[in-house]
Inverse folding.
């Protein structure tokens, strides 16, 4: 069971940013502590704003918007027993995208997706029982 996240530990993030965008109001409380620690370290290293395009997604919303073949397995999808293991960071230009990906890889992110206007930063399965997704991958949207 993961400890409750103390959002005061994160200078550049708050729980609301990670809530599901469907309006259900949930998700921020289901973000992996490991993910948050890594995101803050990457953000500090990069030295530029990390704007969260998409954090947690409830199962209903995931079914509507996810590009994953198994939406339950998406890094974004949270359930009562499954934590959010990834987030999409908005990108506006090539240099910013490089800084985010460089910092993310240096801080141990093993799941990176490159989209038009965002990068996905995700982690493996350290906190969750059972494998969800492969590590050491970069995909395109
Ligand atoms: Zn939702």
């Amino acid at each position: 069971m993961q400890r409750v996240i103390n959002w005061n530990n994160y200078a550049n993030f708050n729980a609301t940013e990670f809530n599901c965008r469907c309006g259900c109001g949930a998700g921020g409380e289901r973000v992996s502590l490991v993910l948050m620690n890594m995101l803050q370290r990457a953000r500090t290293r990069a030295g530029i704003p990390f704007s969260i395009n998409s954090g947690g997604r409830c199962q209903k919303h995931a079914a509507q918007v996810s590009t994953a073949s198994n939406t339950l397995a998406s890094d974004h999808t949270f359930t009562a027993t499954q934590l959010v293991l990834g987030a999409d960071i908005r990108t506006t230009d090539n240099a910013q995208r490089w800084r985010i990906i460089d910092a993310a890889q240096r801080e141990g992110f093993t799941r990176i997706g490159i989209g038009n206007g965002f990068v996905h930063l995700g982690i493996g399965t350290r906190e969750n029982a059972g494998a969800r997704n492969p590590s050491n991958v970069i995909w395109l949207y």
Notes: The CA atoms of residues 2 and 33 lie 7 Å apart.
